[in-house]
Amino acid sequence: MVRSPVHVRDVYEDDAEALQAIWHDFAVEPSRPTGPEASLDQIRRAIRRLQTTASERLLVAVVDGSPIGVAHLRRAPLSPIHDEEAVHVGYLHVLSGYRRRGVGRQLLDRAADWAEEKDSTHIVASVAATARDANRFLARLGLSQVAVVRASTVAQLRSKLAAAGVKPQTSNVVAVRRLMRSSHRRTWEAPGLTPQSRLGR
User: Fold this and answer.
1) 161 and 169 Cβ atoms separated by less than 8 Å
2) What is the DSSP secondary structure assignment for residue 82, as one 8-state letter?
3) With b meaning 16 or more CB within 10 Å and e meaning fewer, what string describes 131-168?
4) DSSP classification of residue 25
5) H-helix or E-strand containing 200?
6) Which contacts qualify for 48-54: CB closer than 8 Å, 24 or more apart?
7) Residue 77: CB partners within 8 Å, gap ≥ 6?
8) pLDDT tens readout for residues 89-131
């Protein structure tokens, strides 16, 4: 069977529906904290933003005119203390019916092209720790594991911190300010002491 060629390009606003389908396929896989379902309007706004952001790109792999794979690229420092810049690849996903056809390789090849074009020295790819196929795929390409990325909602993190007895720093600041105001009021309200008499002391 002759397979149609795969073409990799930047996302267009007309790709919104196909991108929504890819995102849904990505989100239903286990251990993927991707957030709530995105509407077509949200996706179109995101595409417009990405088209005008110099440090980000959203690539789509296209077969017969339809996007079947995606990769988000972002240029950022390799670490907070390094001058070198890296291209960070996230949300790398190919629809299940189009896997093992070199689509992921072509997406990463374009990421490497962009890194070389921008003099970025490294590629950093993030995938779910439980995504065995994706991790094996990246390992075969020479990407070693350097970290495990975990995610949570802010509300869930706050709940866990509170259960562990950790008070947010902002709460401590508020408590100190209240204590200072209370102490100030008690000083002025001492028996026989008025603001005028205090100033005259």
Assistant:
1) no
2) -
3) beebbebbeeeebeeeeeeeeeeeeeeeeeeeeeeeee
4) H
5) none
6) 48/13, 50/11, 51/10, 51/11, 51/13
7) 83, 84, 85, 86
8) 999 999 988 998 899 999 999 999 999 999 999 999 998 888 8
**Tokens 């890194």 sit at which residue?**
115
Write out the two tokens for 38.
């995105």
Max Cα–Cα distance, the chain, nearest Å: 100
Q: CB neighbours of 118 closer than 8 A, spacing ≥ 6?
A: 75, 85, 87
d(CA 62, CA 131): 23
* Terminal alpha carbon distance of the chain: 99
Distance (Å, rounded) from C-alpha 92 to C-alpha 82?
25
Take residue 32 and report the two structure tokens written for it. 């993927």
- Encode pLDDT of 14-46 as tens digits: 999 999 999 888 876 654 555 567 889 999 999
Residues 6+ apart with CB under 8 A from 58: 10, 11, 46, 47, 50, 70, 71, 72, 73
